[in-house]
Amino acid sequence: MADGFDFDVLVIGAGPGGYVAAIRAAQLGLKTACAESRETLGGTCLNVGCIPSKALLHASELFEEAAHGTLAKWGVKAGNVELDLDTMHGTRREAVKGLTGGIEFLFKKNKIEWLKGLASFEGANSVKVGDRAVTAKNIVIATGSSVTPLPGIAVDQERIVDSTGALELSEVPSHLVVIGGGVIGLELGSVWKRLGAKVTVVEYLDQILPGMDGEVRREANKIFKKQGFEFKLSTKVTGAERKGDTVALTVEPAPGGAAETIEASHVLVSIGRRPNTDGLALDKAGLQVNNRGQIETDHDFRTSVPGIWAIGDVIPGPMLAHKAEDEGIAVAENIAGLTGIVNHDVIPSVVYTNPEIAGVGLTEEQAKEHGEVKVGKFPMLANSRAKTNHEPDGFVKVIADAKTDRVLGVWVIASVGGTMIAQAAQAMEFGATSEDIAYTCHAHPTHSEALKEAAMAVTGKPIHI
Ligand code: FAD
Ligand code: NAI
């Protein structure tokens, strides 16, 4: 028994934040339980987020490559390419089952008790999970986030879907209208576009992908347009009416103006996510949320109530699985009396479209607010491997402090941008200068050489342009 409590650590939520925190706490010798109300572990990411969306992105890319891609150019004749959507969905489900089952195995291996059910606070150290009341010396809130609803648009998961419904569509939409040109809209829009849908993205702001570097946002928009996406920027949706198998969407310019109607076979609502705190009875623990519904913590993930900690999508910061995972490790280490740290200045983000769009650190706009910067850019068209592979779109951009040359941000649009950004994150974590990257030997021929050349371009001396 842990100091008279049932557990040393009780984690609420078994997403990438919660399950990782539970495993690390157990590894550190703490008696650990994890409450999860879903039928399977892994949270949003494994069940209805990162993993199933990447499964469909991979599958749809294979389909598109075979049906309309470069295979024929390389002398690979695929014949009549047909889509078997049921099999595609089956393989997606298998991927999810394998990974969520893997977390269950890890829980058993680490002797973590899974308390099945919805958890709510009874006091600062006590929680009810279903009918069971448990106490814990430390409680970690890792309840994640859910889809933000759009007032006036009722999701029916058939014709008007959120991201979960968009993963399950049983037919390829003839016309998918995506509300919100963010990460989900572009990833899932890409899936259905590749499988044959016409896709229109309606975005409230004047540009897609808020939060990313301005030049990257503009270039991404151009690339998606070239792929056949239609965009209605600076446009708001004011209503959606389902009429049998179609949906009539009313849209108007964001600042106001004449309304128009767009007819869609399917609508995806992807305007963001909001933290999950409803039903937790936070008030019984003496906790409050901020005006964005998030639980505030200090740098060590302590909330305002001693013994209660919070991590992942439910606290401020980017809503990303790897951020939640790193916070999960750090919070467990802090609870165990070690020093758990997450460097929130170096959290990479990746949009898994084709090409992938990735960034870490500051945008050029943000960096300029801090002082003078030097920027180096290198186009993927001039990278031998990307050119050979017929992957000409995109560039790498390195932003460095003009005085110290320290790298402040790196942005990549490239077929393997998500893989390339790891190197940039590591360099930044080590406090690298652009010269450090430029003088690091990169294997040839790799896409990563474009990062080296962009770093060389910071001081004006790339070789291949
Ligand atoms: P979650 O994963 O949301 O897990 C929280 C868990 O807590 C849930 O399982 C929930 O059932 C449980 N829970 C909530 N309240 C209670 C309660 N009271 N009692 C018991 N259990 C409770 N991020 C990336 O980094 N890369 C990606 O490629 C990516 N793709 C995504 C694609 C989609 C379609 C979506 C929707 C999201 C994607 N994300 C991606 C975001 C990522 O899924 C989240 O950032 C991540 O899951 C957050 O982890 P978390 O542990 O904070 O919360
Ligand atoms: P998002 O915040 O990325 O994008 C939402 C978009 O909707 C924004 O461009 C916003 O301006 C727009 N918008 C908001 N209200 C609108 C309205 N009324 N009409 C039209 N447009 C409107 O949110 P998204 O795409 O829903 O994703 C949610 C979260 O999930 C993100 O925070 C992201 O971090 C995470 N995620 C991460 C992925 C990854 O890492 N690859 C993949 C998918 C999701």
Automatic annotation (TrEMBL):
<keyword id="KW-0560">Oxidoreductase</keyword>
<keyword id="KW-0520">NAD</keyword>
<feature type="binding site">
    <location>
        <begin position="319"/>
        <end position="322"/>
    </location>
    <ligand>
        <name>FAD</name>
    </ligand>
</feature>
<dbReference type="GO" id="GO:1990234">
    <property type="term" value="C:transferase complex"/>
</dbReference>
<keyword id="KW-0547">Nucleotide-binding</keyword>
<dbReference type="GO" id="GO:0045333">
    <property type="term" value="P:cellular respiration"/>
</dbReference>
<dbReference type="InterPro" id="IPR023753">
    <property type="entry name" value="FAD/NAD-binding_dom"/>
</dbReference>
<dbReference type="InterPro" id="IPR050151">
    <property type="entry name" value="Class-I_Pyr_Nuc-Dis_Oxidored"/>
</dbReference>
<protein>
    <recommendedName>
        <fullName>Dihydrolipoyl dehydrogenase</fullName>
        <ecNumber>1.8.1.4</ecNumber>
    </recommendedName>
</protein>
<feature type="active site" description="Proton acceptor">
    <location>
        <position position="444"/>
    </location>
</feature>
<keyword id="KW-0285">Flavoprotein</keyword>
<feature type="domain" description="Pyridine nucleotide-disulphide oxidoreductase dimerisation">
    <location>
        <begin position="347"/>
        <end position="455"/>
    </location>
</feature>
<dbReference type="GO" id="GO:0006103">
    <property type="term" value="P:2-oxoglutarate metabolic process"/>
</dbReference>
<dbReference type="GO" id="GO:0005737">
    <property type="term" value="C:cytoplasm"/>
</dbReference>
<keyword id="KW-0676">Redox-active center</keyword>
<dbReference type="GO" id="GO:0050660">
    <property type="term" value="F:flavin adenine dinucleotide binding"/>
</dbReference>
<dbReference type="InterPro" id="IPR012999">
    <property type="entry name" value="Pyr_OxRdtase_I_AS"/>
</dbReference>
<dbReference type="InterPro" id="IPR006258">
    <property type="entry name" value="Lipoamide_DH"/>
</dbReference>
<keyword id="KW-0274">FAD</keyword>
<dbReference type="Pfam" id="PF02852">
    <property type="entry name" value="Pyr_redox_dim"/>
</dbReference>
<keyword id="KW-1015">Disulfide bond</keyword>
<feature type="binding site">
    <location>
        <begin position="180"/>
        <end position="187"/>
    </location>
    <ligand>
        <name>NAD(+)</name>
    </ligand>
</feature>
<dbReference type="InterPro" id="IPR016156">
    <property type="entry name" value="FAD/NAD-linked_Rdtase_dimer_sf"/>
</dbReference>
<feature type="binding site">
    <location>
        <position position="203"/>
    </location>
    <ligand>
        <name>NAD(+)</name>
    </ligand>
</feature>
<dbReference type="GO" id="GO:0004148">
    <property type="term" value="F:dihydrolipoyl dehydrogenase (NADH) activity"/>
</dbReference>
<dbReference type="InterPro" id="IPR001100">
    <property type="entry name" value="Pyr_nuc-diS_OxRdtase"/>
</dbReference>
<feature type="binding site">
    <location>
        <position position="272"/>
    </location>
    <ligand>
        <name>NAD(+)</name>
    </ligand>
</feature>
<dbReference type="Pfam" id="PF07992">
    <property type="entry name" value="Pyr_redox_2"/>
</dbReference>
<dbReference type="InterPro" id="IPR036188">
    <property type="entry name" value="FAD/NAD-bd_sf"/>
</dbReference>
<feature type="disulfide bond" description="Redox-active">
    <location>
        <begin position="45"/>
        <end position="50"/>
    </location>
</feature>
<feature type="binding site">
    <location>
        <position position="313"/>
    </location>
    <ligand>
        <name>FAD</name>
    </ligand>
</feature>
<feature type="binding site">
    <location>
        <begin position="143"/>
        <end position="145"/>
    </location>
    <ligand>
        <name>FAD</name>
    </ligand>
</feature>
<feature type="domain" description="FAD/NAD(P)-binding">
    <location>
        <begin position="7"/>
        <end position="328"/>
    </location>
</feature>
<comment type="similarity">
    <text>Belongs to the class-I pyridine nucleotide-disulfide oxidoreductase family.</text>
</comment>
<dbReference type="InterPro" id="IPR004099">
    <property type="entry name" value="Pyr_nucl-diS_OxRdtase_dimer"/>
</dbReference>
<feature type="binding site">
    <location>
        <position position="54"/>
    </location>
    <ligand>
        <name>FAD</name>
    </ligand>
</feature>
